[in-house]
Structures are given as structure tokens and as C-alpha cells.
Amino acid sequence: MAGRGSGAEAGTGGTGHRREDARTLSRDRGGEEDRQEARPPARPADRPRRRRIAGLRDDNRDMVARLRQAHDVCDEHGDVATASLLETCIDETERRVWFLFETERRSGKET
Prior knowledge:
This protein has a domain at 46-110. Helix content is 67%, strand content 0%. It is mainly alpha-helical. The termini are far apart. It has helices at residues 18-28, 32-35, 49-76, 80-110. The chain is built from 4 helices and no strands.
């Protein structure tokens, strides 16, 4: 909905302060990011596909653990609404872990 914002954007017509903050930060730094030499982007292709998939799987597994910790905090404080949202995130992340595990396992058979 146009004209409605949330959090830091409330009352700004939806444009938010973030863009302005980014411009201010850039000016405060004196355009430092413009003076830095351009670095070549990371090349994930340099790593074997199976290792990249395993890395994603491990990252998602770690995310599940952190989400469960956050869920425990919500339970301790009786925040049922946030706990419910976290349960959805946990389920989705666990599905990604499973998918990445199976993808990694099957990619090992192809090589």
C-alpha cells in the first residue's frame, strides 16, 4: 500500500529513511567506497559444486539451530505469535537442509 510504512519508515510516505541514511553515510565517509579499488567478485565456481552445496546445507543447519534458540526465548517469555512465525521459518529451513542434503548426495553419484 502506498503511503504506509512500518518501523523506521512510518510517516515518511513509504519512502523511508534508509535511502537518506545511506546517502548521508556515503557523504560522511567522504565517498570512501568510490575511492576503493574494485575487487573481483568472489568466484564460487572455483569450488566444486558438491562443496558449495554442502556449505549451503551447513549454513541452513546452523540457521535452524539459531531459530530454535530464538523459539525457546519466545517460549520463556510467552510470545506465542513470534514463536509461531519462527516455527514456520524452522520448517522451511529444515526443508532446505533436506533438499540440499539430497542434492549433495545425488551430485556425488554424477561425478
